[in-house]
Amino acid sequence: MRSMREVASIAMIVVAVTGAVACAAEEEKAESGVVARVGGVEITLTEVDEQARRTSLTPFQAIYDARSVALEAMIEKLLLEQEAVLRGISVDKLVELEITSKTPSVSETDVQEYYAQNQPRMGGRTLEDMTSTILTYLLSTGGDQAHQAFVDSLRMKSNVRVALDPPRAEVIVAANDPSRGPKEAPITIVEYSDFQ
To answer: What single-letter DSSP state applies at residue 123?
Structure first.
């Protein structure tokens, strides 16, 4: 015969296991799209998103922007890796050959011209004060352009297709709103104006 302490321990284990199974089931439901249950009614993540989208597109735009930046970085990495394998060299060597070596050098005249063209933005600082900053900026800009040109050429060669869609909001146009074009046009452009 079991002691009261053993019975209590077994009961606690049963409760813990039951709770863990219930939590796992809820997590599984959440992964499948159900995020809440009210009585017998389930609320899905899609329904939550639709409700939130009616309030504001800002968070959805932020998620899209973050995904877009991450996706572009992943695409670029793959393109460079694939091209390096094709040429039988490392990615670092490829970057050195196609980007670093093609980054235009910056002369003292370039720095002086940039300073002269942008003097109002220099905050009263002299050319001598700004030379190092301008030089770094011009080198960076030239490197970015060489980098982008090479990656763009790889994208064209590899026929990259992106299917990440930006967030969209449904805009309801009332029957009496001014409009042009056929009502069944596939695209509707809405202009908001504030006349005061």
So the answer is: T
Residue 176: what residue type? N
Q: What is the pLDDT of residues 30-43, one digit of tens each?
A: 455 899 999 999 99
Whole-angstrom distance, CA of residue 156 vs CA of residue 175: 45
- Tell me the pLDDT tens digit for each residue of 45-93: 989 988 888 888 889 899 999 999 999 999 999 999 999 999 999 999 9
- Does pTM surpass 0.70? no
| CA–CA separation, 75 and 132 (whole Å) | 34
CA 91/CA 153 separation, integer angstroms: 16
Using alpha carbons only, what angle is made at residue 133 by residues 145 and 114, rounded to the nearest 5 degrees? 65
- How far CA 10 is from CA of 18, 21, 38, in Å, comes to 12, 16, 32
Cβ neighbors of 194 (< 8 A, separation 6 or more) are none
Question: What distance in Å separates the CA atoms of residue 11 and residue 2, rounded to the nearest whole number?
Answer: 12
140 Cβ contact partners less than 8 Å away, ≥ 6 residues apart: none
